[in-house]
Specification:
With 731 residues, this protein is α/β, with parallel strands linked by helices. Helix content is 49%, strand content 11%. The chain has five domains: 3-203, P-loop containing nucleotide triphosphate hydrolases (Rossmann fold); 211-402, P-loop containing nucleotide triphosphate hydrolases (Rossmann fold, 3-Layer(aba) Sandwich); 412-506, Orthogonal Bundle (Arc Repressor Mutant, subunit A); 537-621, HRDC domain (DNA polymerase, domain 1); 625-730, Arc Repressor Mutant, subunit A, CATH 1.10.10.1390. Helix 14 (340-349) packs antiparallel against helix 15 and helix 29 (643-649) packs across helix 30 (654-666).
Length: 731
């Protein structure tokens, strides 16, 4: 055993109190101490920090650690100080420090006390910092979260791409780059940009076998999250949302439902952010609801669940964020709520960006769609994305698809047709184009390439687009196809795919999930076609019969009383008093008072006779002050302000405002829009639409109303008239 190895192990025991290294840590540290460039790709919880912290403590001079977030730097510095006798062993230098604090940091570095100096990439560009760093002895540069360098990474930071020339300006020392998520494309990008293509690469398996992966349809998402968290009472969890507004709203909903939850996002003032982070780390709060600003490098080993309220922008983001669960090797549940509407929203955010950036963003989103909708082993899918081959029999039901396998069918002919079609169009097109070609959909692209006359145009029309997408995804994971992400997702046939074409063999395809029509809002949409389904079909049937009976007596359509989704919720929650009924989707105080009594009597009797255990502890409470915006809408309508002005004042489009008014009326509140309707529709038109909803409509569907009037009225006019009708008749 070499003296270096003994020295490394002795230092590990001395500084950190461990007797053994994790995975490849020892080999990485040896490489750094030997003065060689080093590239570390290690999953979250794999011990990346040790790979530069220990060699920094063992080396002469100060290691400069480039880190992207102030919160991350603070956390890392606090951690290293806890294993040292002196706080000066580690410092950070960023915009949060005062002049006096910066002078103290520089003095400690000059005296050789500080072994690790964490800096933001922006700090390296300042002339005074370059001058200072040039004057000290630097042991090596460590670039943490190195995926930030790549435009193909999930958290691209332009400042990271300028690191190499600045480092060269300061001094010539070894570089260690570290990341938890990097596809083969991103790995190459990082090495080229940092000028370390000769670096020794240490790549650990991306597999975290203690993590359970699950994707759920996005229905009643707030209620589902509350149920989930309550089933894991006392356990730590992180819930990720895409918007700051949703973070604050969800944190508040959790709080009023008795859950110790806090919000965290970049728009909060730094002291509050730091306080919330510390409360989570110190277990004064169980749940953090956050944007992606939270969690990078946070060393909390016992996070037991990570929930994605909104689907992330890329698989790298998803992997990084789910990686914060179960870092101690214990329980780690990763649940994502998925609706294609979220993908469409993220796609809109790309508009206005450079064309190449838009294309990259769209490809990353499509990879996320593929993950969400796939029915093969989710672990196998993720690891394949990161260039790792995985035997899905080892998953041991640690993902929803392996735990509840879906139907399989023979796909030899489908896959053969798919590969032949891709070959015929010279491997120059993406998934969407190939699906359109095989189904026979006439598009501008088809016309451009004159493929309507191609022998494969419409050759697969007996199968739906979902089937062809499934065939493409599963052929990629099986190694028959590859997706050239660098060239915007062009499908290429691999050598294995060519062998399959020459000699087709049995190929099992798995029927994929269908998430179309998922509702991404916790409120009931008036033209919703069916809800999430009732847990108790017998009670649901009885409630429908009661509704029909009451509607006949009152001479109004049944949907005026309660809509189907409300009855479905009643048949799931079993409300037996007025307060519980008002927690049912689409039931407000007005509706509860007007129609609730006979329904409550029926449910109470049913519960008693059938000895039902009601999920009372899972009834979701509403936020009292959440209705502030709705109150504002009602007041402005009472003042007879034009709807366009009300929408503008709330930063909404008119259609979104109409949706809000629909929710208000659905919950039992009357509104009077006559002043607005009289400006856009004459009396005869209003009467015709009103009579339709009263006499002819079987449901409140706007689609059916549009078909009935065959374009005589706009969707907006029909929605507003439906509001008038529901307000006057139902409330």
């Amino acid at each position: 055993m070499s003296s270096t190895v003994i020295s490394i192990k002795a230092s590990l025991q001395k500084h950190f109190g461990f007797n053994t290294f994790k995975g490849a840590q020892e080999a990485v540290i040896e490489n750094v101490l030997a003065g060689k460039h080093t590239f570390v790709i290690m999953p979250t919880g794999g011990g990346k920090s040790m790979c530069y912290q220990l060699p920094a403590l063992m080396s002469e001079g100060t290691a400069i650690v480039v880190s992207p977030l102030i919160a991350l730097m603070k956390n890392q510095v606090d951690a290293i100080r806890h294993v040292s006798e002196r706080d000066s062993i580690a410092h950070f230098m960023n915009s949060s420090l005062t002049k006096t604090e910066i002078n103290k940091v520089r003095a400690d570095v000059r005296e050789g006390i500080t072994k690790l100096l964490y800096v933001a990439p922006e700090s390296l560009t300042k002339a005074e910092n370059i001058d200072f760093l040039t004057s000290i002895k630097i042991s090596f540069f460590a670039v943490d979260e190195a995926h930030c360098i790549s435009e193909w990474g999930h958290d691209f930071r332009p400042e990271y791409r300028r690191l190499r020339p600045i480092m060269e300006q300061i001094t010539s020392v070894p570089i260690i780059a570290l990341t938890a998520t990097a596809t083969p494309k991103v790995q190459v990008d990082i090495q080229k940009n940092l000028g370390m293509v000769d670096a020794k690469v240490f790549k650990a398996s991306f597999n975290r076998d203690n993590l359970y992966y699950e994707v759920r349809p996005k229905r009643d998402v707030q209620k589902e999250i509350i149920k989930y968290v309550k089933r894991h009472t006392g356990k730590s969890g992180i819930i990720y949302c895409l918007s700051r507004k949703k973070v604050e709203e969800l944190a508040e909903v959790l709080q009023v439902n008795g859950i110790k939850a806090l919000a965290y996002h970049a728009g909060m003032d730094p002291p509050t952010r730091a306080k919330h982070q510390d409360m989570f780390l110190m277990e004064d709060a169980d749940v953090i609801v956050a944007t992606i600003a939270f969690g990078m490098g946070i060393d909390k080993p016992d996070v037991r669940f990570v929930i994605h309220h909104d689907i992330p922008k890329s698989l790298e983001s998803y992997y990084q964020e789910t990686g914060r669960a179960g870092r101690d090797g214990g329980e780690g549940n990763c649940v994502a709520f998925y609706s294609y509407k979220d993908i469409e929203k993220l796609g809109k955010f790309l508009q206005g960006k450079p064309l190449a950036e838009q294309e990259v963003g769209r490809q990353l989103l499509l990879e996320m769609v593929s993950y969400a909708e796939t029915s093969i082993c989710r672990r196998k899918f993720v690891l394949h994305y990161f260039g790792e081959i995985y035997d899905d029999t080892a998953c041991s039901e640690m993902c929803d698809n392996c735990r509840n396998p879906r139907e399989k069918f023979e796909g030899k002919e489908i896959v053969t047709l798919l590969l032949n079609a891709i070959s015929e169009v010279k491997e120059k097109h993406r998934s969407k184009y190939i699906c359109d070609l095989l189904i026979g959909i006439d598009t501008n692209d088809n016309k451009t390439y004159k493929h309507q006359s191609n022998q494969y145009f419409g050759a697969g029309k007996e199968h739906e687009e979902a089937t062809w997408n499934a065939a493409i995804r599963q052929s990629i994971v099986a190694g028959l196809l590859s997706k050239d992400v660098e060239n915007y997702g062009l499908l290429k046939i691999t050598e294995e795919g060519k062998a399959f074409m020459a000699e087709p063999r049995s190929f099992e395809l798995i029927k994929e999930h269908d998430y179309t029509g998922m509702d991404d809002d916790n409120d009931i949409i008036l033209n919703q076609k069916g809800g999430a389904g009732a847990a108790d079909e017998q009670l649901f049937k009885m409630l429908k019969e009661l509704r029909k009976e009451i509607s006949t007596k009152k001479n109004v359509p049944p949907f005026v009383i309660f809509q189907d989704p409300s009855l479905e919720d009643m048949a799931t929650q079993y409300p037996v008093n007025d307060e519980e009924l008002q927690n049912i989707a689409g039931v407000g105080q007005g509706k509860s008072k007007r129609y609730g009594s006979p329904f409550l009597q029926l449910i109470a009797k049913y519960v008693t006779e059938n000895n039902i255990d009601r999920p009372q502890d899972l009834v979701v409470k509403s936020i009292v002050n959440k209705s502030g915006a709705k109150v504002n809408i009602i007041m402005n309508i009472d003042r007879k302000l034009p709807l366009e002005d009300i929408a503008q004042s709330q930063g909404k489009k008119l259609s979104a405002l109409i949706t809000e008014i629909e929710h208000i009326v659905s919950a039992g509140t009357k509104v009077n829009l006559d002043y607005y309707l009289n400006d856009i529709m004459d009396d005869d038109s209003q009467e015709a639409v009103f009579d339709y909803f009263m006499e002819d409509a079987v449901t409140d569907s706007i689609d059916e109303a549009m078909a009935e009037f065959d374009g005589d009225y706009t969707e907006e006019e029909l929605r507003l008239m439906r509001i008038k009708f529901m307000s006057e008749v139902a409330n």
